[in-house]
Specification:
641 residues; Heat Shock Protein 90; Ribosomal Protein S5, domain 2; Rossmann fold; 4 domains; 9-stranded mixed sheet; 5-stranded mixed sheet; binds adenosine-5'-triphosphate; nucleotide-binding; Hsp90_N; Chaperone protein HtpG; cytoplasm; stress response
Length: 641
Amino acid sequence: MSTPTQQERFSFQAEVVQLLDLMIHSLYSNKEIFLRELISNASDAIDRLRFAKLTDPGLDESDEPLQIRVSFDKDARTITISDNGIGMSRQEVMDNIGTIAKSGTREFLKALTGDQRKDATLIGQFGVGFYSAFIIADRVTLTTRRAGLPAAEGVRWESDGRGEYALETIERPARGTEIVLHLREGEDELLNDFRLRTIIRKYSDHISLPILMPDENTESAEGTESGDAPGETVVNRASALWARPKSEIGEQEYSEFYKHVAHDYADPLAHLHAKMEGTYEYTLLLFIPAHAPFDLWMPESRHGVKLHVQRVFIMDDTGQLMPNYLRFVRGVIDSSDLPLNVSREILQSSRVVDSIRSSAVKRVLKLLKDLAEKEPDKYATFWGEFGAVLKEGIAEDYSNRDDIARLLRFTTTKSSTDTPDTSLADYVARMQEGQEKIYYLIAPTLAAAKSSPHLEIFREKGIEVLLLSDPVDNWVVTSLPDFDGKRLQSVAQGASDLGALEDAAEKEANEKAGTELAALVERLKKALGDRVRDVRTTNRLTTSPACIVAGEPDIEMNLIRRMQGSGMPSEPILEINPEHPLIRRLDAESDERLADWAHVLYGQSVLTLGARVDEPAEFAARLNDLLVALTGEPGPVDEDS
Ligand SMILES: Nc1ncnc2c1ncn2[C@@H]1O[C@H](COP(=O)(O)OP(=O)(O)OP(=O)(O)O)[C@@H](O)[C@H]1O
């Protein structure tokens, strides 16, 4: 049995101090959100208790209904928020309060600019949570006991938010958490029944648990000595928002609900609310956030949909409700067909879940389609934040591939800015007469793509090319062989074939050049040896002397290499431009000089891919030899001669 311990003092993580300071300053103008955040945490704690009780009924120590209480004390100048949820052990308090365990904290803090307005938005992206208490309090006391632990293992945490906190073990008969806010000077207007009730209704009406406040006339502050037992009333509506009819719910309510489920500070971009009746009965209330969470790309990144069964929170999604490529979706799915004690294992093989998931996915895709059509500015925001994630769906979700393909946006050679603004449908609508394929170019960066020699013939003929530079784009093009019956074709892979876009005279000239330069091509091939799979003439270049393309059957290896970021195809083919003055004079060069030329042409072609030359020193040496020869200067003087 543990006995109350001496108070111990601990330091906050350095990041917490920085974050707190920033939060107090940048969120002050919106200070009432502290109550929303603390009520939201209390509600989560009760949800977690309910879930834990499913496997450990012993956690239910009392038959008191699950609820949240808010009260204030005018004399002591405090506001108290308490819940009878899961509570925290001493270790959990240390891990959760005073530490920021969230991945991405450092990156977040680096992104801060010092400009208060901008930083306030950033802080919102991070989720303000418990620390928002310090906006209005200069001392916060949290007492808590974890459900299932003995009363002697209560914990008291206290801090003035300036860098240290005190911790002690205390006796606490009731499980759950109580937070007492000792208000800063000048915050007394919050010590008001009407004011607090208004804040609760404004931000927390959607919380499905009752939020109780003592009745006004029992409040000692008012000095009424009625002698009645203190009464309490439920301040919020206390019904699950998603279970109410759509017509009754305003945008503001949806938005506050979103902030609660998503732990977000900003409004969502869009939402869908649907009651499904048929084989299975379930409700979807799903949101598209306006910005990406910090952990979007981290393997442990949390999925954002919460499963409820008949309004009772069951668990956070771990991939059963939303596929990975929609991991940014936040919200609630409530089923009437699953048992309350459903386990993760049951979820994994449940027909009900499969059916809910497939219809939820279709609805989210439809929501995105509507957003793209009706609110293109919002869709552009969505695409900027989540486009690269949605693209994974092309490879991941075969059955919805066409719908996802319609949602893709690209930068192309015809885009006026770097912003991806072209859909595949836009591209197809702009295709030239006789054009049969959708052309794309993959490069490690957009800058490398835009300046790539592979685009020369396409620019000359005014043919649009999609410019792809996301690492995930490799998956997109390998998983999406065609769109609207048009094949997707890399402009840097296989022999140049413009089909009907090339006239007979051009084809003939190309063939003729191939025959004329056959001997040169052989010599170049010999000089380059293993570095290239082949050398050939091409008509794809108009201004560059040479370029590297990938062989046609090269996709798999190419993909792996590109994923490693090298940008080089696994079996490179050097193509030369027969019209280029440099190429024309090569035939006359000696074998030794030709070898320099071959390597320099190869090296520069590697560079224009945005890739790295394997032996940069050798490349530079050969280039210098050629430059010296061209300027007609004598070579370096040999000291010994
Ligand atoms: N009333 C509570 N009961 C039990 N645990 C709590 C309570 N309040 C906070 N916690 C714990 O402390 C953690 C940190 O809370 P905090 O509000 O800072 O962040 P969060 O709720 O996880 O996320 P966000 O900051 O995005 O809202 C919570 O995740 C939870 O584990």
